[in-house]
Amino acid sequence: MKKIIIAEDSSVIQNLTKKILQIQNFSITAVKNGKEVLEKLNSEDYDLILMDINMPQMDGMECAKHIRGLSDPIKSQIPILAITGNAKNYSISDFKEVGINEYIPKPLNFDLLVDKVKMYTEDHD
User: Fold this and answer.
1) The pTM is what?
2) Three-state SS for 82?
3) Domain limits of the chain?
4) In this structure, are residues 82 and 39 in contact, taking their beta carbons and an 8 Å threshold?
5) Alpha-carbon distance 4 to 7, whole Å?
6) Which residues, in sequence order, are CB contacts of 87 under 8 Å at separation 6+?
7) Under CATH, what is the fold of the domain 3-119?
8) Of 31, 58, 107, 117, which is most buried by a Cβ count within 10 Å?
9) Which tens digits make up the pLDDT trace of 102-116?
């Protein structure tokens, strides 16, 4: 079973996303900010990170930079999908620069979300 971290400070979005992905047979760990993502990554392996951009303590951009800078070669390459209302008008190149693979706009289209998650967690043997 593929393991996903959802980092999202809105519990409504977090719970909804969690339910939808659990139905698709993903194992979900939910956290509220970037610092908690890094703590989880320290102790466990994950296949994908779904990350809100605007979060307290450490936002998604900063967290992505930290992840890409990790010394563990596997953890530093985990796919990161940003979820964002994009209030700060980041461009796709801003996201790429910090190592975010792709972003999904809010309000969330859950079909799109599931498609993207599956695309990034499929085994490419």
Assistant:
1) 0.95
2) strand
3) 3-119
4) no
5) 10
6) 54
7) Rossmann fold (3.40.50)
8) 117
9) 999 999 999 999 999
